[in-house]
Amino acid sequence: MIEFIEIIFTAGFWAATIRIACPLILATIGEVLCERAGVLNLGIEGIMSIGAMVGWMTVFLGADLYTGILAALIIGGLFGLLHAIFTVYLGASQHVTGIGITMLASSLGFFCFKLILPASTTPPKIKPFQPIDIPFLSELPFLGPAFFQHTPFTYLAILVVIIAFWLMNSTPLGLSIKMAGENPMALEAQGIDVFLVRTIAVVLGSALMAVGGAYLTLSAFDAFYFGMINGRGWIAIALVIFASWKPERALLGALLFAGLDAYQVRAQQLAGAVIPYQFFLMLPFLLSIVAMVIAAKRTRYPKALLIPFRRGERH
Amino acid sequence: MTTLLKVEKITKKFGDFYANDQISFEVNKSEVLAILGENGAGKTTLMNILFGHYTPDAGNVNFEGNAIEFGNTNNAIKLGIGMVHQHFTLAENLTVLENIIIGRQSIFSLSLPKRQARVKILELSKKFGLPINPDELVANLSVSEKQRIEILKTLFLDCKLLILDEPTAALTPQETDALFSTIRNMIETGLSVILISHKLNEILAVSDRILVLRNGSSVGEIATHSADRKKIAEMIVGKKIDYPQKKKIPRKSKVLSLVDVSYDKTDAPNLIKVNLDLYGGQILGIAGVAGNGQTTLAKILSGHFKATQGKIVFNEAQSVLTSPKSFMDLGVAYIPEDRNSDGIVGDMEIWENAIMTEMDDPYLRNSLGIINKKTSFDRSKNLCETYDVRMQSIRQRSRLLSGGNVQKLLLGRWLMRKPKIIIACQPTRGLDEGAIASIQNLLLKAQQNGSAIILISEDLDELLTMSDDISVMYKGMLSDPTETCSTDKLSIGLRMAGDGFL
Fold first, then answer.
1. Highest-confidence range of A11-20, A291-300, B228-237, B317-326, by mean pLDDT?
2. 293-312 in chain A: CB under 8 A from chain B
3. What pLDDT is stored for residue A315 in this prediction?
4. Model pLDDT, residue B240
């Protein structure tokens, strides 16, 4: 039994946790931005997928890795703009638009991939981000290999959490986003364009989702294949609720889920002969649901989430 | 005297409906202009135009000599117009400070000058006597505190003209007095105020001039010191108000009696051994401070709650009562206290609400049991005409009706069933003078036709004009009825405070 506890004292476990958490962190914070402004973005799964494809393809076609991130950012922003046009300006159903965007973006991504590389059977590879050693810190025993020998993309994801925290709590835009999702009429009464604020939030949030997808192809793996997002977007939607719509708690939630996932892979290897591996695969989801139920009790939804704002209408 | 705001011939249409029709007026520096009118007269629409929420179809507005740009709240704010909306425009998930400073910087600015703002807010709070804690979450504040924040928000913008839309609707009398002294303070420092209300007494107490709107048009302007209460009330309504005249009729047979009815659960205020007799043609008033069990009693009498002990006897025979429907079938009509949430379904159309309780009437269905639109429409139109429900169309969503018209719709729906007993909870709360008189007259007419009425109200004037007998409810106990002619406000007030109860 002791082996099961020893897992969490290995540097490899912690390094894997962080690696698995990164795309979830980026996507969850993206969704937090959208929902805080009052717009549910179910396009997340598709936007992550097309972000993964565009980021990878940009690098495959000869650009450097950072340009790949930028390309993912832009394509995510564009799909966010599409979502905003329908849900914010036209007041269409956020559920239907979001699911439509997921279907469009994931299929379009794979379609373009096949268009550019029609002949490939085994996915071609690129040279992804390589781990860099942070001077001094990376030489610490245990902590070094666990936390200070990651790729630059990983540190970028952590930086995004800090920036998102600052944005939400210390800038006029963050305040406006929070008000747009709570009482948009109040925002208009203060002289701010609700449509603009919501659109900015959705575009920024979707851009982050696409970057989260690109993490998979540019840092975690080195190739793109269909279906590689594999429900990470939907997990991010659940993590938003776990996080009570707060960036700092999104980090915590993503780490928790990733930790469970990293743990189950290792536990499988130890007990695979006795317990079916599917049981371990299920564990992170099961425990996440339990954590979610506990956390959701105290949660306060943004009051104007899902409600389109229409100017000059009687309320 | 200098003119601050000049409004010329503002017209605003919603569909074919003129919400504002060629309205002109002026506001001078350092004065309180009151705008009076019934619900739906166009007051709020007019203010929303001034503040930039709506764009008018015609007309223009000058503020300090500059034409204002319509449909742009930011422009109104920059010019110095502040507005406190009837429904608060605060985000409950933010702090007081955040609610006040939002919008003062561009949303692309990278800093939020909280420190300077805090200093200014505390200064204003002191200057105008509006105590607040800037770091409190708005969700934790009471209604009057939220209103304080709304006022501070406008003062923070250095506004020159403050628009207050129905500011006293949710305030206690003490809070109202405090608000009025704040308004007086503001006038002394050179601000101007537009006060929207339908409460005449308050307007007379605080305003300098009164503008009256009716059906979207301006019907006159009066200086407050030369105003006459009755005359203004009639200007508002547009005709002589038919103040209710109570006529007593001889008692008919007993229709309802309660014997030792108690309610002992945790979901509502309890009742302790309530006894009550009600006769046809009688109006029994029940006075009491809210929360002493009146609502519980009304819900038991209409079948929404089940008494835990005691007997309810209708027409001298104890009936089997299982649901609100069985009470309805016995001839009980129930006017709920909260008409908008318990009386009508706001998102359904007027005709649907008008026939909602009548679905067992074969006249409204065809042979397949499906609603017959034609007869239903006829029935609804007939109801709206008979009971003077003012609307644009029976296909209109019910939430767009004013409070008075919702109540007329509700009461009309019951009266068409010719009820034997009417349980009316706070039937005129929040309505304007004209609507109050209409509702009271409808109830009196029902009484003349032999209905028995239980009138639950907090308004003692209403109880004294309407009731034959008055009982008082205190902590779940109901006093024996006293004849209205042999009692007065003071003695009822004392009993409401518990005098005479064990």
1. A11-20
2. 300, 302-303, 311-312
3. 43
4. 79
Task: Answer yes or no: do B224 and B263 share one domain.
Answer: no
Chain A residues with CB-CB distance to B68 below 8 A = none
Q: Which of B78, B93, B105 sits opposite A172 (nearest CB)?
A: B105
Nearest CA in chain B to A185: B89
Whether complex ipTM tops 0.90? no
Tokens encoding A120: 């490939």
- Judge: B103–A196 Cβ closer than 8 Å, yes or no: no
Structurally, how many domains does chain B consist of?
A: 2
Give residue-wise pLDDT tens across range A148-159: 999 999 999 999
CATH code for the domain of B213: 3.40.50.300
pLDDT one-digit tens code per residue, B84-109 = 988 888 999 999 999 999 988 888 98
Residue B131 lies in a domain: no
For residue A245, give every residue at least 6 positions away whose Cβ sits within 8 Å of its Cβ, in sequence order, or none.
A32, A35, A36, A302
Contacts of A303 in chain B (CB under 8 A): 92-93
Q: What is the mean pLDDT of chain B?
A: 88
What pLDDT does residue B283 have? 95
Report pLDDT for B232.
85
In a shared domain, residues B213 and B360: no
Q: Strands across the sheet with B192-197, in order?
A: B81-84, B161-165, B192-197, B32-36, B209-214, B217-223
A311 neighbourhood in chain B, CB within 8 Å: 53, 71
Q: Pick the last residue of a domain from B184, B208, B237.
A: B237
Contact of A118 with chain B, judged by CB distance below 8 Å, is answered with: no
The last residue of a domain, from among B179, B202, B237: B237
Percent of chain A at pLDDT > 90 equals: 69
How many residues does the structure list for chain A?
315
Specify the 3-state DSSP secondary structure of B3. Answer: strand
Q: What is the Cα–Cα distance from B176 to B168, expressed in whole angstroms?
A: 6
Residues in chain B with CB shorter than 8 Å from the CB of A300 are: 93
**Is B107 part of any domain?**
no
- Considering the domain architecture, whether residues B303 and B448 belong to the same structural domain is answered as yes
Asked whether the beta carbons of residue A191 and residue B91 sit closer than 8 angstroms, the reply is no
**Closest-CA residue in chain A for B347?**
A315
Look at residue B322 and tell me if it is in a domain.
yes
Give CA–CA dist A28/A23, Å, rounded: 8
Cβ contact B94–A182 (<8 Å): yes
Give the predicted TM-score (pTM) of the model.
Answer: 0.77
Residue B460: pLDDT over 90: no
What pairs with residue B221 in β-bridges? B211
Helix residue ranges, H only, B113-199? 114-127, 143-156, 173-188
Q: Is A186 in Cβ contact with B89 (below 8 Å)?
A: yes
Structural domain range at position B24: 3-94+157-237
